[in-house]
What we know:
Blueprint: H1 3-7, E1 9-10, E2 17-18, H2 32-39, H3 44-54, E3 63-69, H4 74-85, E4 93-99, H5 103-112, E5 118-123, H6 130-139, E6 144-149, E7 153-154, H7 158-166, E8 174-182, E9 188-192, E10 212-215, H8 216-221, H9 225-234, H10 237-242, E11 248-259, E12 281-284, E13 287-290, H11 292-297, E14 305-310, H12 317-333, E15 336-341, H13 347-351, E16 357-359, H14 366-377, E17 381-385, H15 394-398, E18 403-406, H16 415-420, E19 426-429, H17 432-437, E20 447-449, H18 456-465, H19 468-474, E21 482-487, H20 496-509, E22 515-522, H21 526-538, E23 544-548, H22 557-561, E24 565-568, H23 577-584, E25 588-592, H24 597-600, E26 607-610, H25 613-625, H26 627-644, H27 647-662
Parallel strand pairs: 3-4, 3-6, 4-5, 8-11, 14-15, 14-17, 15-16, 17-18, 18-19, 19-20, 21-22, 21-24, 22-23, 24-25, 25-26
Antiparallel strand pairs: 1-2, 6-10, 7-11, 8-9, 8-10, 12-13
Helix pairs in contact: 6-9, 20-21, 20-25, 23-26
Amino acid sequence: MTLLSRLSRKGPAGGKVTFPFVYKEKAREEGPYAIWIRNHHWNERNDRWSRRQMERFTYKPTVGVLMQCHNPQEEFLGESLSSIFNQVYPFHELSVVDRGSDEKIRTLLTGLEKDSRVKVSFQKGTERDVEAIAKIMKKAQSEWILLMGAEDILEPNALYNMIATLQDTVEIDFVFADSDLIDDKGLRFDPQFKPIWAVGASYPLGYYQHPVLLHERVVRKLHGHERVSQLMEEGSLLDEASNHSRYVLKAPEILYHGRARGDKNETPPPAVNNVLMNEDLTVIEGKVTIDAYRRQMSEPRTPLRILWCIDSLDQEDGEMVWFHYLRYLAAESKHQFQVVALKDGSMKAIYEKVCPVTIAPHETELTGLITRLHLEQSFDVAFVSSVENVWFPKALKTLSIPTLWQLYPGSADTTQVGEGFQYPATILFLSRAIADQYKTYDLRDVSRILPTGVDLADIKLFRQRNSPVDLRVKFGIAKTSTVITIAGPTIPRKGQKEFISAALEVLNSRPDMELDFYIVGERPGTYLIDLRQLIEQSGKAKHFHLVPEAQDAFQYYPFLWMSDICVSCSTEETFPLTVLEAMAFKKAVIANNVFSTNEVVEHEENGFLITGHQELVQAMLEMIDHADLRDAFARRSLEIVYEKYQFKKIATRLEDLLRETVVY
């Protein structure tokens, strides 16, 4: 039994022919295009997502497919028909014009007419009959028509992407998309990444020949079906149509694979390196080639199912950083998250506003927990953050879940670290300096750098909605007072005791000045008791304001916004998020000269990096006494954030790394 005989069979639904799914996902040679293909392979997740989106379409036009056929290879014709019959967005009718194929192909095409949507027209000779094609087009009842070669292949989402592009548009005449070639072995090559349409421009023959979705109004503009058929025969249909069209759209992705042995107009023209070169191309060693990374960034994002493994849910900078990334990716790209944590904490309630959270009280329970969750949700990728300690759930390797693992500085050089490096597809560090500490373990060269980012959009919105003057009134602070704030949970390594001691010296040095010191993030415990006693025994309690820790990702914003100076006394800091937030609020900063913090604070540019008690006191006095210095530091703080730490750019990079991990 031949391939097409097996494919062309009547399906369970009356009058419908069905075909097994055929998909081409291999490149002819390794290189940038092979990477691009792997990053855009079709799978069941894409299919489910596209069908859900399709239910929301407000515009669902009928689409017909016009195929011209002349003695195609039986196998290739079967693959072509399979790609039509397995479209996510279903076609309304398929019109086949056969030009003198042999009896076997003609018999098989006749069998297709068991499907009420298929009409086959047989020409007597092998020459293209313009009138015959025109008659077929006249009989078509679809609003849109797609032109197709008999051995070519459509991506499963070809019609879907084109119709999705048409949503909320009017008066569009045709839609085109990118394409490539496919050889007789089913291997893809020669991608044709095309620029967006420019009215009046001349395009080389074949550069946009397929895929093209034409609206019926084009026929009227070109004075009839015969004229359209003639232009199709000449290969100049779209150039002519462009002279009559105001609106032409380009659908995303490579949607069409032209058979290399087919018509000459499927071969793309050579790329030219000039000012008009497509932005998706680049020059490497004198050769114009695809810029795979840039092209990938321009494509639609398919949501992923992500297992988000966090070692602690304590409300500190590290945990808060990863929450902000999760919140952003869930909102912007609709990724679905499941959080698993070793240690419970106040961040649980914050996470649960976005996604489900499960706590594993003991690390020994992780394997069973992750296995159960994976069976229920079928994760595409896992993210593991080692904020407080080195850990890597072994179940991820057992279940073959692609994993991105984040390590922080200070993780002990143990056997556990060496073993952990063997599986993850990507290992993430906050800086090159940290990555270099683990260089000897990274035998597969999978280390990547991702700095901490701060969400400027949220801060800008908060600043627009809140006045620092009004906030001072709300909290009973004089407009003329100098406010100095330290934010973070009251734990020893955050150094609030050092902050209070320095503040007391400053108050003694400037007894007549209006000064207010805020300690934001009050957490119950013996350390907090010590802080309160220190303040009360000083006799200067009226100058100090302690604010309880809240289950709110933005709890520090009001106090950073109304402050003049922000201080960090942390003796250890992996994620200097609070410092970055203060800088984004355009504040001068004083910070301990410790790792990570000293990468974001530029000494004597946007603040002071200090070591020890006396330097902290002196830095406070310097800023209190010189408002112009504070203002200069504040301006530079915001500039640094814009230059290096914009949250959206870094969050997008994290998303890219997660996608690279999936296809590793």
